[in-house]
Amino acid sequence: MTKDELSKFVCADPTRNAICEAWSRGKFSYATDGYILVRIPRLSEIPDKETGPDVDNIFPKDDPWEWFILSEIPIEDQPICSSCDGVAVDLKCPNCNGRGKYKSEKKEYDCEECDGKGKIDCSKCLGTGKLLPVGIGNSHFNYALLKKLQIISSCKIGPMGASDPAWLKFDDGDGLLMPIRV
Ligand SMILES: [Zn+2]
Ligand SMILES: [Zn+2]
Prior knowledge:
Elements: H1 3-7, E1 23-25, E2 28-32, E3 36-41, E4 68-69, E5 91-92, E6 101-104, E7 107-110, E8 119-120, E9 133-136, E10 139-142, H2 143-149, E11 156-158, E12 166-170, E13 173-177
Antiparallel strand pairs: 1-2, 2-3, 3-13, 4-11, 5-8, 6-7, 9-10, 11-12, 12-13
The structure holds zinc ion (2 copies).
One zinc ion binds at residues 81, 83-84, 88, 122, 124-125, 129.
């Protein structure tokens, strides 16, 4: 995995300074968005970062009951989101009724809900159009996160139960995926 590939898994929120970029420690380089964690053999171009969290101790001590190959899990068969009927994106913003603005005391303001665009993504399916919980083994996972993991072609997933992060393994590293409670 290259630095660019690893950096796809950092947190997009720049205010979360500890995890908004990849970091190295000891033998490994890491990236996480708080839901997916990826750990690969240390890349020399990724520096140590003191504020990067210590994560080695949260990896499972025992193997999971079963490993599932991510590319073989039929996640595209996931039922469509009942909230938006699968439309997912560019829904009319209910806060401003699609206008993008609202008037208050003769002044016009941008709608904060949609940033003035008048359209929003479905909040129930996070703009994916699919029901989010996907059952794998003894756990459920977020459809959008499983889609994101598909960029790691060799990824397999070992569920560790309803509340513990699942173990991920791939050709040149491993990682964790938070389950969702249903
Ligand atoms: Zn709006
Ligand atoms: Zn939806």
